[in-house]
Design brief:
Number of helices: 2
Strand content: 35-45%
Low-confidence stretches: 4-28
Helix content: 10-25%
Largest sheet: 6 strands, mixed
Length: 174
Amino acid sequence: MKKIFISLLLCSSLFYVNAAAENVAPGSDIEDWGVVVDGKLSVKVSVDNPVAVTLTPAGEQTPVSLQEGVNTVKVPDTDRNFTVKAKEGYAIESVKVGDKSISVVNGVANVPCEAGKEVVIVTKKDTSSAVTLVANDDNLTVRYFDLRGMEVSNPQKGQIYVMLKNGKAVKIRK
């Protein structure tokens, strides 16, 4: 009895996927995610800031165009992976596939996709370098950085620094 029930369940599931795949058109609605069409798996990807990252499916050279919110990304069914990379001035805070967290190393995450599991990418501004501080300086105080980009609280006479004042960076000798 169990074998018959499992066979019926398996057959009905296969029929549902095939029926859904036949009804999927290019540019189809997001409800069709998790379906394989023409050897590609549709994956639902949510991103809070599409300008902050690039997303490149396995085997592709060109990143996918993303919009804020929910996107449909197609990945090869044989290699269900894509690479998410932070752009300059941004950092990837987290990447999740369903409930599973994906590690981000040096601003890059290799994401294994699973049918029916949403990928969520959360980003933030990267404020860890002097270059970013110069670009985002809202503070009108004078700040000094050494040539390695490290902030210096007490500049020494005779040394070369980058001075940040009123949103402008200038190289000076103290």
